[in-house]
C-alpha cells in the first residue's frame, strides 16, 4: 500500500512557498474588505438644536453637524473691575435731606431758543463765585452771540453769601457793585428794576452759620428783596455740591442736601420757584462729576454751565408757554 507523504512546508522550494504565501494573503485581504464596507452616515451630535431655537450649522462634511452654542466661544468675559455697579442710593435719608434727583425739565414746549433766552433780559442773577462763573460763561458766549440770554444782569461776588449780604456796608464788605458803588442786594435789585431775581447761595455760609442759620439768612435776604420789589419773580437755584468733601466738617454734600431741602420747603411755602440744577451735575454717589468741576472742589466748568443754560432755557420756555 502506497502512502502519500506530505513534506513539511519548510521543505518546499522557495518559489512554491512564496506562491502559497501570496495566495493566503490575497484571501485574507478579500475577507477583510468584505467585512469593512461603509454603513449609514455617522452623525456627531453635540447638542439639540431645539435647545437654542436655531438651525444646526454644518461643516463641509455632510456627515458631521454642529449645533450652535448659546454664545460664541471666543466672547470676552466682562471684567467686573471695568463695569462696577453704581453706588447704591440709600432708601432713606435723615429728615430734611433731598436725594440728588434730576428733577428739572429740559423741554422747550415749542418755544424757540432765542425767545427763551430773551426772557432773561429783565432778570438778575445773584450769588457767589458759582454765579460769577455763570457770568463769565455768559460773557464768553456773548463774544459770538450778542443776544445770549438777553444780556442778563448779575450781582455776584467771590466768597459771597447770605450772611455777607446782611452785613453793614463798609470798605471791607463784599456787597457787589452796582453803578460803581456797593449797595445792599435789595436796593440794587430795586434800582435796576429787575423783574426776575434768580439766586444761588449756600456754599460760603454752611461752615459759618450751619444749616439752620444759612436757611434763615437766605429767607431774610429774599424777604428784603420782595419787600422792595414786590412784583419781581423769585427763583432759587439749589446750592451746588462738592466733588470731594472727605476733609470737610460742616461743608459736606450731606449738609448741602439738607440745606437744599429747607430751601425747597421755603419756596413751596412762599410761592417761589426752585430749580435743582445741582442734581444734574452729580453722579450716582451725589458728588459733582469731574467733567463739571474746574478746581477739584466746587467751582464749575463751561460744560457744567452748558447744563445750566439748557435747564434755564426750559424754565423760561415754560413761563412763556404757560405763564408760570
Please provide a written account of the structure:
The protein has 324 residues and is of the alpha/beta class. The protein has a domain of 210 residues: Rossmann fold. 37% of the residues lie in helices and 9% in strands. The chain has nine helices and nine strands. The strands form three sheets. A five-stranded parallel β-sheet has the order 4-3-7-8-9, sandwiched between helices. Helix 6 runs parallel beside helix 7 and helix 7 runs parallel beside helix 8. It is globular.
What secondary-structure arrangement, pairings included, does this model have?
Blueprint: H1 14-34, H2 49-52, E1 57-58, E2 65-66, H3 113-118, E3 123-127, H4 129-142, E4 153-156, H5 162-165, E5 177-178, E6 181-182, H6 185-192, E7 196-200, H7 206-228, E8 233-237, H8 253-270, E9 273-275, H9 302-322
Low-confidence stretches: 1-24, 26-89
- CATH superfamily of the domain at 113-322, by name, is SGNH hydrolase
Strand content: 5-15%
* The CATH top-level class label of the domain at 113-322: Alpha Beta
Summarize the structure.
The chain has 324 residues and is α/β, with parallel strands linked by helices.
Name a few traits of the molecule:
single chain, 324 residues, alpha/beta, 37% helix, 9% strand, globular
